Amino acid sequence: MEEEKKEKKSSSSAAGGGELQYQSGFGNHFASEAVGGALPRGQNSPLLCPYGLYAEQISGSSFTSPRKLNLRSWLYRIKPSVTHEPFHPRIPGNKRLVSEFDQSTSSATPTQLRWKPVDVPDSPTDFVDGLFTVCGAGSSFLRHGFAIHMYAANKSMDGCAFCNADGDFLIVPQKGKLLITTECGKLQVSPGEIVIIPQGFRFSVALPDGPSRGYVAEIFGTHFQLPDLGPIGANGLASARDFLVPRACFEQTTHPGYTIVQKFGGELFTAVQDFSPFNVVAWHGNYVPYKYDLSKFCPFNTVLFDHGDPSINTVLTAPTDKPGVALLDFVIFPPRWIVAENTFRPPYYHRNCMSEFMGLIHGVYEAKADGFLPGGASLHSCMTPHGPDTKTYEATVAPGEVTEPFRIRETLAFMFESSLIPRVCRWALESPYLDHDYYQCWIGLRSHFSCNRGETMMDNGNADEDS
Ligand SMILES: O=C(O)Cc1cc(O)ccc1O
Ligand SMILES: [Fe+2]
Question: Is the ipTM of this complex over 0.90?
């Protein structure tokens, strides 16, 4: 069942006041009409659509994908998307966007990397120009891989819409609201919420609160799913009913010089048309943009001893063909109770065959007392050791340290975790925001080893013989 959800839209909203309304559910077949009767009844492509609209399908999967993976929507619009001048390379482009990760675009490094939060730009910069790739793997052309971008913008997109032909965007705003107009309707997304804009949808980002900054995971060749819950059972983690999908709304006026900015193979192209692409009067289907409020997440965790793996906090997963191996998992570290007994409670020290990119939306992350700041980022690639910094370790094992249940409050960190090994873009490695002293946070970890047989063990390599 779909539920109607309402949300107060900021009165300073660039797109006018009023309330935004949503449909709810994950993977549903939705239907929405901004004008009653605009959806054709009983078929997708009548000879003439109601109100003289054009029928247009957008496919997010091959036509022949199995039914459970098949994604498509039908849009009923005033003019079809194809009504535009030819595409041309955009001048200026955005040279810091990458969709193929090889030696020409990016470097391999096993080093632990951490970045301070980037400043909002001084010069007028919208979402498209404020987007830059940090790292990634694979290729949008080969339909396998991912890119991690960040953005910092201070200006709403104006007279233009963005269309990403390369992959799906999972956008994590960290500062400043986004008011996103899509062909399916509008979504308002605040820090603490995420939004998914699937491959191919045209959208425009307004900044009703002023400057905005955040993170974007882009996936090539697949789409996000809810994780299986296994022994957890039928409920828990992110619930399908908390995902919100826009309702149809449209702009009817002509708009000479309207520009579509298309990201295609990591490069930007523009095409001019004389109307807004947000001219969809009604639509139906299961290929849709959607948002999710991370405070709705129902966390599960250890209730007796030991630290569970972070996969327990998976919000969404983009699968590969190998069972249980993700192209990209989106995992959060939300406020929760920590109750484990006789346990080192922060994340354990570890090396992982998966690669971990982390960001912080607000607060302090439980493994890093210092240096990992809201809006900042870290990357621990395949088999690169990492874990709590010295201060966190020492505070956790200090005599008299709290062992009672306690609530981790006012924090929200997240991880993009991938089975593919990311290469890092040159500008991210040369960035003034790169924290060159990151390794120092572990250098102070000293030996607490005490064993009066230590010397003997080193001498003959066998502790048993010594006894
Ligand atoms: O490295 C990190 O901070 C992320 C992380 C958190 C955790 O609780 C366990 C493992 C893990 O990789
Ligand atoms: Fe980790």
Answer: yes
419 near 382, Cβ under 8 Å?
no
Closest CA to 309 of 321, 296, 293, 326: 326
Give this prediction's pTM. Answer: 0.95
Domain boundaries of the chain, sorted by first residue: 295-443
Residue 365, marked binder = yes
Buried b / exposed e over 337-369, threshold 16 CB at 10 Å, is ebbbeebebbbeeeebebbbbbbbbeebbbbbb
**386 assigned ligand-binding residue:** yes
Ligand 1 atom closest to 386 (CA): 1
Tokens 């009023």 correspond to what residue? 18
N-to-C CA span, the chain:
70
Mean pLDDT, each 10-residue run in order, the chain (467 residues): 43 48 98 98 98 98 98 98 98 96 97 98 97 98 98 98 98 98 98 98 97 98 98 98 98 95 98 98 98 98 97 98 98 98 97 98 97 98 98 94 90 98 98 98 96 61 42
Pocket test for ligand 1, best of 415, 417, 418, 438 (most atoms within 8 A of CB): 415
CB-based contact 423:102 (threshold 8 Å): yes
Question: What is residue 403's predicted lDDT score, i.e. its pLDDT?
Answer: 82
C-alpha 440/C-alpha 75 separation (Å) is 54
CATH 2.60.120.10 fits 295-443, yes or no: yes
Predicted confidence at residue 463, as pLDDT, reads 44
Q: CA-to-CA distance for 390 and 27, rounded, in angstroms? A: 44
